[in-house]
Structure formats: C-alpha cells, structure tokens
Known about the structure:
Blueprint: H1 10-20, E1 35-39, E2 43-49, E3 52-54, E4 57-60, E5 66-70, E6 73-79, H2 81-102, H3 108-121, E7 128-136, E8 139-145, E9 151-153, E10 156-159, H4 163-173, H5 180-197, E11 205-211, E12 215-222
Antiparallel strand pairs: 1-2, 1-10, 2-11, 3-4, 5-6, 6-7, 7-8, 8-9, 11-12
Helix pairs in contact: 2-3, 4-5
Amino acid sequence: MSNEGGFDFGGVKRNAMLEGKGMQVPRAWKTGTTIAGIVFKDGVVLGADTRSTSGSTVADKNCEKIHFIADNIRCCGAGTAADTENVTDMVSSALQLHRYATGRPSRVITSLTMLKQHLFKYQGHVSAALVLGGVDMNGPHLFTVYPHGSTDSLPFATMGSGSLNAMAVFEAGFKDDMSREEAMALVARAIRSGIYNDLGSGSNVDLCIITKDKTDYLRNYEFLQQKTYVRQFPVVYPPGTVTVIKERVVKLSLADVTVTTVEPGATEMDTS
C-alpha cells in the first residue's frame, strides 16, 4: 500500500492475476421484486409482491416485503432480504425510542433521513432499495430510497426488477385526488403487471393503506397462485382399485391369564 495520496488500484492487478490463474470471481446474485406506492386523496397506498428468490430458485412464495416502521409509516423493501429487514428494523427501533423521549408521533421525513444516512454511509453495499410511505402532521408522503442513499419525493413510485412494468401502469392510470378504492385498484394492477412480466416477481399481492386515522395491512389482497386442483385428503380408493394377488387369514385367540392377589403383609416374592 502506497503512502501517497489518491486511490490505490493494486487490488485490480491482484484480482486480474487470480482470475487469469483460473479463480472464479464471485458474482452478485440477481434479486427480484416489484414494490410500488401511490399518494391518494386521504393517504398513501403501498403494494408489493410476495416472491423471494435465491438466484434462479424461488425460496419463498409468500414472504412479506412491506415492513413496519411506525404506526403511521410503512416501508416496502427490494434487494437483499436480510438488508431490507434489518435496516427497517433498526430505524423502527430508533423511532420508538424517539417517541418515548419526545412523546410525539414519528414523522415520515425523520425515518427518511435515518434511512438515507445509513445507506449512504455504506456506499451501496447494503442492498436495500426502498419505497417509504406514511401520513403525519404534514399530510401524506411517499419517497424512494436508493441503495446509495439518494432519494426522491413523488406522487407515485416503483422499485425493484419489476419496477418498469409497474411504472407503465402508473403513468397510464394515475390522476390527482384519487379515491381510496381507485388507488388500491391501481396499485394492485401495477403489482400484477410486475408479477406477470418479471421473472423475479411473483405469487401474490400485498397492500397497505395508510391514512391519518388508521393503517390497514391487507395480506394476500390478491391470491394469484391458487392451485386449480385440490387433493382430497385422506385419499379414499374404491374397492377393486388394487388387484389382490394372495390372501391369508390368521385367527387370533386370547391366551389364558392367571391373576394372583397378594394380601397386605405377605412375604415378598423372591426374585433373586
């Protein structure tokens, strides 16, 4: 390592040498998700698919991607599952302590600042792409947080590998001052677009509706992977289904049993 200022690219030559000798360079696994959010007249609607992948393998068909931050704030996570869960849990815990200390409800901008500062500190190595939404004293808010720490404030937002499909639906169907039902239908349609057109997204649709009065988390709002055939259990086979090749009947009889009653105070039986 040189003591001079500036960057040191010695690791690049080392990696090239190791790769030239046949070493397999580790590759980042592709992650897949479709998450989206929209601001409507009275609050925010967040949506997510439920597929968790491990490379090309579906690891979980019904995972949760809408994470709890506070009673009035939720956060959708795309990227590495461990990173999204732990980052949102850390911010949720810090906001809980902040509410204890101040006695005031959490603000959406506070959670946004904590998320972006943490992600920026790790320069994108924490793989968490987030859609943050909530309602506070200043009204409804919707933000996107990129893994490097940059943020956007938008009336509708998408993230993940299926984000382009969901964004196409939003750009075609969004309008100002949407009702709750219209916003829910549009977000569900956007998530379905990602599920049907992106291999990394799939399974079901989760929705979360946040207003100033309450938060409704609708788990499996749309169940898209329902099986068309339901197996009967236990399976009942009619007589004659299996051919009997050989039959043997054994009659069992009860053996005679002698019961001996020992009176109290009698000498014990010698078992030696």
